[in-house]
Amino acid sequence: MTYLEQQFPKLTRLYHPELENMHTHYIFAIDVSGSMVKYDSIVTPALKAFSRSLPNGEQVTVIPFGTEAKSNVPGLEVKIDNEGTKQTLENALSTLYNNAGYDRTFRANTDVAKAVEAVNGSMRNNQDIDMNVVVIITDFLNDLPGQGETPIHSGLLVDLNKNFENVTDGKHTRVVAMKLPPMGTMKGFCLDQLKEEVFNNTGVTRKFDVVDAISDQAAISHWFDQLAREIMTEKLKAVIEIDNARNLNPRFSTNIDIDGNTIAEIHWKPNKLYTKLQIDSTYTDSGSDFYFKNNKGVWQITTDTVIKDIKLGRLKNKSIGLHRYDNEALNIGLMLPTDYDSELKRLSIDKPIPDTSTERSGWLWTFWLPFWLCVTLLVLLIIYIFLVIKAAGRNRSEKFEGEVSLRDATGNIVGPSPRIYISPQASLKIGAGGNNKCNLSDAPWSIDVVKKTFSPFSLKKPVFIWKPSKGYVRNGDKMQGKLSRYGSPTSVSLKCGENRQNITHRVTINIKKKK
Fold it and tell me: What angle in degrees, to the nearest 10, is found between the helix axes of 40-52 and 217-244?
């Protein structure tokens, strides 16, 4: 623990309770056949020193093997819980290579496969332990009785691998093959078989290493010290990787309007290590005709476990217009920032990538103006076109309907007040040379009433303009004016004569209002 506190202080403080409660099963399969006895003075002292350094709660199993593998040897399978159990283990290790119970047949040969079988069995019997560390110490000469050095049978390799997978499923397991120098010209080629066909499940929870020729006590003791530090580091990694897989479970829902504006809601469950969340990206699947324009303003670090009303950005299509999308995947990439990032990197621990996605269907409008505004403008344009067409028709058909009243200078009626109907193309002339029943040949003046039609695009309604073509014609001080059947003025009273002083007639022009 001291080593971890020095190397990874932040993570060690965070996971201190888990580390104290995470125990390791150390399994040593040691070749004690006749040719290996010479390593007694190198291996045994190093094993004793290593066992003395173990904290309480660790399990130690030592399996001596030769022609057979001996499990459950008294004193060689203990749970470290006090100094007494450590002393029991040390006493048993003192006779590891020269135990009186080893007969001559047992020491004559080496069956490596039986050692591996015993290792698998020991792990099976201790399933409550969180981590396994297996150290196999031999020259890996599979020297069977009457056969000499023999490869392990392929069928047996399959069984050993299957059993290894079963007993290590879900557990962090470290297997170390400590290869001692082989005797004579033999090769010890069963090591490659074990590496390739039995302990080949390397990965996050399983690891296999080969250590060559530990030649003296100091070297092997140093190696055991290094192993202890590595195991503590593996424990730290194990508890972190357990946390990596715990909780989080991010999920999100979205609401996408017709313009692609996306509002999201994210739910997630923090764990001990990951208490903060940050949006890293928002994107559609590759190859899609739709893409996402991110709103990076919402990419903020938060500790909230429910984040509502997130304005993610806008979903768009590669071409403008109205598009249908069906089961389009919208993905959110999430980051898990921590205060432990540098230590996690040194431990080569990858953070989980809690990406999540949702599929949506709907209609999408892609344009530089929003859909509602485009629809409004289109409706207004249709209305305008309709009004223009209506105005054009009205302008063509508009005619003068009304009457003209003629009086002399004193106000007496001069003849009847005729009703006048003028086609859209004709005009009205009142006075000398007049028309439409308004002909006063003796009048020294004349008035023209002409239809004025505005452009239909202006939507203005037609009016009739009166103005003199001869003599004195006035409406007050105005020499011309408008008449309209749609509003004021609908009539006008005019003074007419040769000049201002000589008024000969009074004329009233009245337009009939349209019902």
Answer: 40
